[in-house]
Amino acid sequence: GVLKSLKASLKKTRDTLGISRLSTASLGQELLDELEERLILADVGVSTAVRLVGELRKDIDRKNITTFASLVEALKNRLADALKKCSAPLNIEGKPCVVLVLGVNGSGKTTTVGKLAKMHKDSGLSVVVAAGDTFRAGAIEQLEVWAHRAGARVVKAREGTDPAAVVYDAVHRTLARGEDVLLV
Prior knowledge:
The protein contains seven helices and four strands. The chain is α/β, with parallel strands linked by helices. It starts with a helix and ends with a strand.
């Protein structure tokens, strides 16, 4: 389930990074510049990629990193540390708590909304899901399946409808009913 999906996503990122193809390069400025560029291409934010590579530069000197394998291990550790800092409970204050989920196609937004809906329903909150992806074929139906599984209500419109109109409608309906969470 979740672990398999995470592994698949990480494989896609690993393939995009193509780090193994850099293994023959010497540990120098050129390699670090290439690594920074590949991190950015793999959807790591620019400021995060620059910071990570800057930390790796320091690690090379301080920790006497001399092999590509040890550089990759240091990168893994830095990435793990960065992700740990992002872990925090979702703060749901006020009604409704509106959560906007966005990202590139195929990144798992619909699945994540379904999982968030279930998590909130299981904790006793009322959940509404707004089907704002009105242009991707089958997106509304796919979201309806996830919402139904979680026991969440869905606000939707016809395919091709203005997404902002769907969200506007969802906010007003959620407010009118006094529901707890709106996932967009």
